[in-house]
Amino acid sequence: MAEEKKNIMDEIAEANKSVVTGIDEKDIQHWINISIMGKKYRVPAGLTIMQAMEFAGYRFIRSCGCRAGFCGACATVYRIEGDYRLKTALACQTRAENGMYLVQIPFTPAQRANYDINQLRPGIEAFLKVYPEILKCLGCNTCTKACPQDIDVMEYIACGKRGDVEKMAEISFDCIQCGLCSIRCPAELAQYNYAQLGRRLFGKYGMPIPEHLRKRLDELNQGKYESDLKKLMTAPLEELRRIYTSRDIEKE
Amino acid sequence: MAELKFIGGYPEYMRKLIDVVNKTRPQRKDYTPKAMTMAEREEVLKLCHPDYAPGGKRQLLFGPNAGDLAPNEVADLIEAHPLIDPEQFIITNPDYTVDLLIIGGGLAGTSAALLANDNGVKAENILLVNKLRHGDSNSMMAEGGTQAADRENDSPLIHYIDTIGGGHFANKPDVVEALVNDAPFVMEWLCNLGAMFDRNPDGSFVEKAFGGGSRLRMHACKDYTGLEELRVLRDEFRCRQIPYLEFYPVIEFLTDGNRVTGAILYNLETGEYKIVQAKAIILATGGFGRLHIRGFPTTNHYGATADGIVLAYRVGAKLRDTDTVQYHPTGAAYPQQIIGLLLTEKLRGMGAQPINIDGEAFVFPLEPRDVEAASFIKECYVNGKGIVTPTGMRGVWLDTPLIDIKNGPGTLEKAFPGMLRLYKRFDIDIRKDPVLVFPTLHYQNGGVETDPWGRTNIEGLWVAGEVSGGVHGKNRLMGNSTLDCLVFGRRAGKSTAEYLNSDPQFGKLTLEHLKNHKKMMAEAGIKTTRRAPILFPEYRGKAVLARKIDIF
């Protein structure tokens, strides 16, 4: 029996090898050619841009964070051979394609302001005070085209210009602050920082603390659960097991 | 092998298997397999969980936890030489002299900075250092939510029981008490700073079910919960102009022989080191997913390489629960590009069912994570009812289309924009088709032992977040990790502020502890060339590394 169990873990490790320790050259069936910062490399087909660069020998310090599309560290600009257009992507979320000319943006030097959220209120005045340059938007939509999250960036900037933080917050919610909108913007805006202000204004002033939370906070401040909790903390294991297994499970 | 033909992101043979899932869906719609008894849970864990299967672990040979079991990959780093040679290294005058040094800028470290500042530590007397960028962390990737018992039929008592039951009753009671009591205050704090939690039309929080939970307690910000929490806290941190450094990992602590008094930073780009002298230090460096324990893929971010436990152990900090690792049941198993990435438990919380190759719902969808993961492994490797991918991985289906069927059309799009987008990039529509999943390495359950204020057995050293151990026992529940970071980050910030108000003096900066480490390694008979912390995993192509020469 013990032997069989060991085999399960070995089998799993074997099946995961290409992800954990990198692909063996002998297992590669299809290759593509890419160019990383102007140098040509042959890499296996089917990898993300990030994995392809690592296969080619690059060890990331910058431009690599969560590797799952949440952190915005791996903002990438590329062009496909034969096409004049510059495109944008996240290196960890995009398949490397034959003929890609790749470069990663290590850092976005966009301006962000310091403010006290308690001193601001939702509305156009907040933006005029903190980020007056928002009015410079040319309405060219380049930001929206550059966004790897498919956010309608230009639209939320328009909302910000009207002081509509609710709409701005809603549209910009999935922003991972990679900075590609700002890098491509001909009006030199820092869209993602304005969206951060808009969301905080809406979160703070448009979504008040719910009544049920206030009630619980009052109870806690009055020490309502203190003694019962202390009893649980010192209860014997058998008693805890009994409480755990007999507790009722709430359905949705 | 001939080129595979793809239909809607899946190869033809997998498409046929999806037809089986589609066929049984109407019958399964209102059916849920029974939850396991405690005995059934234990049986499947023993048979199929990587923590319980033989091998993979060994006893630590020296230090405060000598004799405790730890994964081989972790023991390898603890039983390793420092990156610097204490005999040769010159400790210069400090480059930074601060009251409070915080190492790691995820939810725990960032919360700590804000609370220290709230409690009287001036911004300019704080320094937050990051290995990557401020915010690059597992916190940022938390999809599902944050637990807080704030509904009328819920209470901190029930939260407590759920948490210790999920942790196999091995949790440290006083830290769990702090966790469940502080949770509602954390929610209030985040709302006041402007975090946007999902709300019902009447303004109350939307709260959902989760594995091992007995109440609807999961607060989410769509499926970007960690991102929303952290970007709000980071924005507040920036607004207060608290100093921070990026791409500066800590490679060693400095001590006066007992008390932690500073740290050595390493500039990743120039290779230069910097010396920090501090009166108090909060370690918030996260976990170890990128060690790929037992060869599993991981959900973790690039820097999750156990740096914190390695450095803390060298100064004599005591660890606990080092023997358990959390494997999240639903990691992506297909397509190849996203293997290991997290598919939040909230998908199951809202009705998605795990399904085998015959289209059967084979397990209660909301067992605690270790039990659910072991059940998937059993279905694939013991029962032989898994689905094999083109690269030879096995997995089970997670029937995501059920979410819209059970909750109404448009639910998936609204609640899981991140997931929808992730799969859309690979031509898969999770509203119409199930996704293939297999357990993935997710979380370091154990870590440095603390008291309820994040204090360790080492003077001058506080710990918060995933690098700590005790609050989750042997298995963490969903929504308790972001909460852990927030609660104990805040507590460590407050506690260090109180300590600093008592006007402690700066200590001597030495590497005495490394001499001790060297002696213990030698006495334990460890002969190795390994060095730690490793800072990053190694993913470069093998052919390239074989031809690499180091010139500069």
Offer a concise description of the structure.
The complex is a heterodimer of chains A (252) and B (552). With 252 residues, chain A is α+β, with helices and mostly antiparallel strands. Chain A is built from twelve helices and five strands.
- Total number of helical segments of chain B? 16
> Which sheet architecture does the biggest sheet of chain A show?
5 strands, mixed
The global form of chain A is: flat
Strand content of chain B: 15-25%
Largest sheet of chain B: 7 strands, mixed
- Runs of chain B in which pLDDT lies below 50 for 5 or more consecutive residues are none
Largest interchain contact: A-B, 96 and 116 residues
Integer average pLDDT of chain B:
96
Query: Terminal Cα separation of chain A, in Å?
Result: 41 Å
Tell me the number of strands of chain B.
22
Overall 3D form of chain B: globular
Helix and strand composition category of chain A? alpha+beta
Taking Cα atoms only, what radius of gyration of chain A do you get, to the nearest Å? 26 Å
Number of strands of chain A: 5
Strand order of the largest sheet of chain A: 2-1-5-3-4
Multimeric organization: heterodimer
- Per DSSP, the total helix count of chain A is 12
Helical residues, percent of chain A = 40-55%
- Write down the Rg of chain B: 23 Å
State the helicity of chain B in percent bands: 25-40%
